[in-house]
Amino acid sequence: MNRPGVDLVHNPPAATTLILLAHGGYEHSTKTPGPWRPPILRLHPFATAARTAAPAAAIGLLRYRHRGWNAAGDAAVDLRAVLDGLPGRFERVVLVGHSMGGRAVVAAGAHPRVAGVLGLAPWLPVDEPLSALRPPVTFAHGNDDRVTSPKGTVAYANRLRAAGTPVTVHLLDGETHAMLRRAEDWNTIVTTFVQEVLSGAVGEEKDRVWPAGPARGSAPAVLQIAWARLRMPVRERIRV
């Protein structure tokens, strides 16, 4: 039977913190997501960035049962099951999610093990239930994203703020959903967020627009993804 779990790509024996990366998917699909699909591969440079920021932490890729969110919110269901079933040595978990994974980390981010939530181009529909997140919470979205809505991300952040949760929002000019045009900026956002969580910062309410830099093609980012995947293969699998 297909079960959710975590593919660990960095796993120091004494690690008590897990940085858990949740990839994107589809609105509807019950197919099994394979390890070589683009949404999963796109997260590997973020694993490298997280290791730079926190070399003593474990780093893992969330593995869903299905490629889609589906009517039951399967990605969030799987993430909650993983958070419940992780080995006891992982005392805190930092969640980083892209697209559907961004929706999952928000939906499951109130779990007591979670120490921070970062949503990258998150899929946050207008009627998405408000989650009782604890800071730090950061959202980042490309202004040219046509797959998920940067306006929806800002709206959800403002709802969290109205409920008393400080949220940082980064908007990246000239960037699309695949996060390939400004790859180094995305890596910086991940690195900075992980450092913020591990430093014990409580988070602050702020917005930042990253101005557009020189036009970049996707080829350097694709090469970076391939290199990161080769440098950080799966070391251990946890199934719950």
Automatic annotation (TrEMBL):
Gene3D superfamilies: alpha/beta hydrolase (3.40.50.1820). Residues 19-212 form the AB hydrolase-1 domain. It holds the Pfam family Abhydrolase_6. InterPro entries: AB_hydrolase_1, AB_hydrolase_fold. GO terms for molecular function: hydrolase activity. Keywords: Hydrolase. It comes from the Bacteria. This is Alpha/beta fold hydrolase. It comes from Kribbella sandramycini.
